[in-house]
């Protein structure tokens, strides 16, 4: 894996809940039970991270980076998967994690969002 900082970066996001889903063989990073990142493998076992994103930006990223593909086992418009043995720059991957976290945060109730602001 080219991103040894990945687990720490995801785990340190505000309000992050981390678990390992044994049936899927994946690490999940969530906010109030809603996933913002999933680290596992594709059908051949190559390590990937799956992140939520803006559908138009997701398409542009896939066209620009061969290591970014439609979300593996997810809604292809709203989720991208990034190969962790690929060449996506660290700063871009961090930005994609931040955006995914923010999208999930904004999908929560205003009350819950205010609780996260207080953290």
Summarize the helices and strands and which ones pair or pack.
Layout: H1 6-11, E1 17-21, E2 26-31, E3 34-41, E4 47-52, H2 55-64, E5 68-70, E6 79-83, H3 90-107, H4 110-118
Antiparallel strand pairs: 1-2, 2-3, 3-4, 4-6, 5-6
Describe the structure in your own words:
The chain is α+β, with helices and mostly antiparallel strands and 119 residues long. The chain has a single domain, classed as Aspartate Aminotransferase, domain 1. The chain is built from four helices and six strands, in the order H-E-E-E-E-H-E-E-H-H. The chain has a six-stranded antiparallel sheet with strand order 1-2-3-4-6-5. A hairpin with a 4-residue loop joins strand 1 and strand 2. The longest helix is centred in the C-terminal third of the chain and has 18 residues. The chain is globular.
User: Which residues sit in consecutive blocks of at least 5 with pLDDT less than 50?
Assistant: none
How far is the N terminus from the C terminus?
31 Å
Dominant shape = globular
Instruction: Quickly give the CATH architecture.
Output: Alpha-Beta Complex
Order of helices and strands: HEEEEHEEHH
Overall mean confidence score, pLDDT: 94
What is the spatial order of strands in the main beta sheet?
1-2-3-4-6-5
Question: What CATH first level would be assigned?
Answer: Alpha Beta
Count the domains.
1
Helix content: 25-40%
Biggest beta sheet attributes: 6 strands, antiparallel
- Total DSSP helices: 4
The Rg value, from CA coordinates, equals 14 Å
CATH topology: Aspartate Aminotransferase, domain 1
- Determine the structural class based on helices, strands and strand pairing: alpha+beta
